[in-house]
Structure to design on (245 residues):
C-alpha cells in the first residue's frame, strides 16, 4: 500500500467513475437489519469482502434519468440491487446518507453515492453464485460486533456506514432522521506509519501532507488484526464525526 507521499506524487490519477450503493433495510426481531453480499474472491475489486449491493452507472441509467446524474444514481442502485440480490427498492424511497470518493492511489476509482432504502419485512435475497457468492440479512449492530471480532471482512466505507446506522432502532427512525441531515462527503487517503495501515479523513493532522505520523488531530480508520477501528480525536468542529452519536 502506498504512503501519502507516494499518493501525492503520482503523475496520473485514474478518473473516479460515478457509482452508487444501496443499504437495503428492514425491521427484524433483533432490530434494524441490512442485507450484506459476499463478493467472489476472484474479483479484482473487493473480492471476498462483504458489501452492500451496488456498482457503476451505466449508459442506460443516465438515459432513463434524462441525463440527471443524481437521479441516475438512484436508478443504478435499484438496478444493481435487483441484479445482485433479486430485490428492487424504489428509487423514490431512497435516502442519500453519504458520498465516498476512492483514494487517488487506487487504479480503479469510483465516485459513489450511498443510499439507504426500505424493503419488505419478508424480503429474501436471490443471488447468482457468480459475482456474489453469499447473502445474509443481519442486524446492523450484530454486523458491527462480528467485524470487531474479526468474523466479518468489510472495507472502510461499509464498516463506517454500519457503525453509523447501528444507532437506529428501526427503518422508520433511520429514514426520518437521515432525511433531515445533509449527507457527508468523504474522500479518504490511504497511508501507513509506525507499523500501522490506515485511511485518513479530512480533519486528520496528516491528511493534507499525507504524513500520518505527524502529531495532532486523529480522524482515521486504522486496520488492526484485519479489523477496522474508527478514531476521532481532537478534530476541529468543521470536520464532523462520520459515526453518529
Amino acid at each position: 500500500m502506498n504512503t501519502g507521499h507516494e499518493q501525492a506524487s503520482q503523475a496520473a490519477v485514474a478518473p473516479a467513475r460515478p457509482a452508487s450503493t444501496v443499504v437495503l433495510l428492514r425491521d427484524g426481531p433483533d432490530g434494524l437489519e441490512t442485507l450484506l453480499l459476499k463478493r467472489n474472491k476472484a474479483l479484482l475489486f473487493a473480492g471476498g469482502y462483504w458489501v452492500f449491493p451496488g456498482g457503476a452507472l451505466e449508459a442506460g441509467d443516465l438515459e432513463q434519468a434524462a441525463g440527471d446524474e443524481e437521479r441516475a444514481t438512484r436508478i443504478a442502485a435499484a438496478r444493481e440491487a435487483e441484479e445482485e440480490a433479486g430485490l428492487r427498492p424504489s428509487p423514490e424511497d431512497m435516502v442519500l446518507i453519504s458520498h465516498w470518493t476512492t483514494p487517488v492511489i487506487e487504479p480503479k476509482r469510483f465516485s459513489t453515492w450511498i443510499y439507504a432504502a426500505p424493503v419488505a419485512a419478508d424480503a429474501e435475497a436471490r443471488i447468482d453464485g457468480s459475482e456474489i457468492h453469499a447473502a445474509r440479512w443481519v442486524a446492523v449492530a450484530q454486523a458491527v460486533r462480528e467485524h470487531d471480532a474479526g468474523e466479518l471482512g468489510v472495507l472502510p466505507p461499509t464498516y463506517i456506514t454500519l457503525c453509523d446506522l447501528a444507532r437506529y432502532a428501526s427503518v422508520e427512525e433511520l429514514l426520518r432522521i437521515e432525511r433531515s441531515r445533509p449527507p457527508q462527503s468523504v474522500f479518504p487517503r490511504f497511508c501507513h506509519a509506525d507499523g500501522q495501515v490506515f485511511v485518513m479523513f479530512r480533519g486528520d493532522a496528516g491528511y493534507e501532507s499525507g504524513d500520518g505520523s505527524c502529531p495532532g488531530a486523529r480522524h482515521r480508520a486504522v486496520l488492526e488484526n484485519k479489523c477496522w477501528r474508527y478514531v476521532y480525536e481532537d478534530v476541529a468542529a468543521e470536520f464532523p464525526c462520520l459515526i453518529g452519536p
